[in-house]
Amino acid sequence: MVRSFYLLSLAGAALAAFTGNLNYFSPSKRHASLGVSINKVAKRTYANAPWDPSELDFTHGVASGDPYDDSVILWTRAAPSTDNNRSNVTVSGYVPLYDHSTEQYVMKSDSPVCVNWKISTSKSFENIIDSGTAYTSSDIDYTVKVEAKKLGPFTTYYYQFNVCNSNNTSPIGRTKTIPSANDEVSEPVRIAVYSCSNYPFGFFNAYGNPVRKDSVDYVVHLGDYIYEYANGEYGWGNAYGRIPLPDRDIFTLYDYRKRLATYRTDLDLLANHQNFPWIPVWDDHEVADNTYRDGSSHLNNTEESFLMDGSVSVDQRKMNAVRAYFEWMPIRQVDMDDNLRIWRNFQFGNLFDLVMLDTRQYDRSITDLYWNTEYLGEIYNDASRSLMGPRQEAWFYRTLRESSTRGATWRVIGNQVVFSRINTSAATGVDLPYNYDQWDGYQANRNRTFNTIYENNIGNNIFLAGDSHASWVSDLVWLDEHPYDPASGSGSMGVEFAGSAVSSPSPAGQNVTIDSTRAYSDWLVSANAELQWQDLYYRGYFELSISHERVNAAFFGIPTTTLRNGYEIPLANFTVLADENRLHRADGSPAVGNVESGSLKGGMPTHSNLTHDTETGTWFIYTGP
């Protein structure tokens, strides 16, 4: 009897430590039959000694994300191997989908991995604010995700993990909470904005540069954190030693785990995660190319597709991808009863609301799948078409109204695809003048968004976008509904900043020249009234500095991704003054100072190749590859 009570107490302690790891709750905390059964994991492991600390490593560094004013998510992976758990079991019926004890051949861990964590205001950890213990196991790929609480608003913290009862420690991470919703924010908030990092196309230098400059507080990632292709399908990594693993199109849970793990070996991505809290959303390639609610460009719910594409259904593939994403990203699951919900809102004091949308996976109507472009050209204005689905749309419009009512100065909307109307007929033809995979393919959804903004007189809107592998800066205008002056910006209700890719190639091609891309950029700027600057040549990112008086945007180009270095070229700078609702014009130019590349409405770029080495702080003229 005494031993029974002892074992029960051990089991209870183990259960508590497992529940401290948030990754066991995904994809559904309140429906255990749809996720990992924590009771079964604890029962399987509690009587066994934990792993020997000397056999474990923090294989992929540390990360933090989804900061609130009083808490933040902390992440690491403590594992006996850099490889990932190889379970690809798909079970049916009332059986936990990811319970590794359901199949004998699954290599499950019968010993838990015990990890302690702590967070402090100092790097020396003299003042511990919060701490705890969490277990992990093969069931969640040995990942650890905890919520550090009892934190103060808009404060920098340092955190670290260690294997229990040992000196086996992780790197020290740095993170920062956001201001409380009603706080007066007196200093600018600085954000780096990224999208589209493709491993075989080269090194992720763009991730490392803000670390070397220490130039931002937070990171917003707008998706395409990974790509799903085999090496050679979209990027050839042999020359750089960057072959995406597993080297095939990915479909299974193991595939997505391994691909995420491979990307997280990039040293600049590791450093960025270690130093800044992330607020990410997915785009399409976290699952597959041009995904929508019911499929993607190469996989749909037909027998032919099922046989051709790995014998995996659309729903199962998406479940595998989402499962791995939640395991590996420092992100909260917003709704435990809705594992596809990633759309959420962050209130940065009275300064701005950051509204993160999912215009891709959640409930998007059919998109351009390459074989149906003409069909999309016929239906793109149908009222039923939505990038978000009715539930997310209603939430988005309500959030915009509530943000304005509560008195936040700015509304910053992070979404995946370009919002502004972009005539691309020089490339696509006059009969199909738009990219129907962007908001242009969902005209009614965009009109409903504009109607909410204009009818409620909601100003100071900043839309962010990625996806296109190019840079676009536009006034935010409901064209054909409200008058607009491209020279002054009069009639606009905000600005859109859409950034280039970390490493994915230009939509004009991988080996294009700066002169050839500028010719097309010139055409795009002349053909689109609201488009004020456009660049197709450079890979890169942009930084925002947000204060009550203004939003400053600085775009940076990466001169090469074929070598790892800290080089970047300042491309263009823009300012939006509060209540002007447009790009601020100085001497008739929508840009601040010179523009390095692309095409500027009312101005002329000055191509200098003046390059900043963020490692040394020196400036030079770049002449390399």
Structure description:
This protein is α+β, with helices and mostly antiparallel strands and 625 residues long. The protein has twelve helices and 23 strands. The chain has an eleven-stranded mixed beta sheet with strand order 5-2-1-10-9-8-18-19-20-22-23. A hairpin with a 3-residue loop joins strand 11 and strand 12. The N terminus is likely disordered.
Major sheet details: 11 strands, mixed
Any low-confidence stretches, pLDDT <50, length ≥5?
Answer: 1-10, 90-106
**What is the global morphology?**
globular
Determine the N-to-C terminus distance.
Answer: 74 Å
Compute the average pLDDT: 91
Which strand order do you get reading across the main beta sheet?
Answer: 5-2-1-10-9-8-18-19-20-22-23
- How large is the radius of gyration? 24 Å
Strand content: 15-25%
Count all strands and give the number: 23
Q: Given the helix and strand composition, which structural class is it? A: alpha+beta
| Helix-residue proportion | 10-25%
What's a quick, concise take on this entry?
With 625 residues, the chain is an alpha+beta fold. It has helices spanning 2-19, 38-45, 205-213, 253-263, 267-275, 303-308, 314-328, 373-379, 389-406, 425-428, 443-455, 514-527, and strands at 57-65, 72-79, 113-120, 128-136, 143-148, 156-163, 173-176, 189-194, 218-221, 277-280, 344-348, 352-356, 410-414, 461-465, 471-475, 494-498, 531-535, 539-546, 550-558, 567-577, 599-600, 610-613, 619-621.
What secondary-structure arrangement, pairings included, does this model have?
Layout: H1 2-19, H2 38-45, E1 57-65, E2 72-79, E3 113-120, E4 128-136, E5 143-148, E6 156-163, E7 173-176, E8 189-194, H3 205-213, E9 218-221, H4 253-263, H5 267-275, E10 277-280, H6 303-308, H7 314-328, E11 344-348, E12 352-356, H8 373-379, H9 389-406, E13 410-414, H10 425-428, H11 443-455, E14 461-465, E15 471-475, E16 494-498, H12 514-527, E17 531-535, E18 539-546, E19 550-558, E20 567-577, E21 599-600, E22 610-613, E23 619-621
Parallel strand pairs: 1-10, 8-9, 9-10, 12-13, 13-14, 14-16
Antiparallel strand pairs: 1-2, 2-5, 3-4, 3-6, 6-7, 8-18, 11-12, 15-16, 15-17, 17-21, 18-19, 19-20, 20-22, 22-23
Helix pairs in contact: 1-2, 3-5, 4-7, 9-11
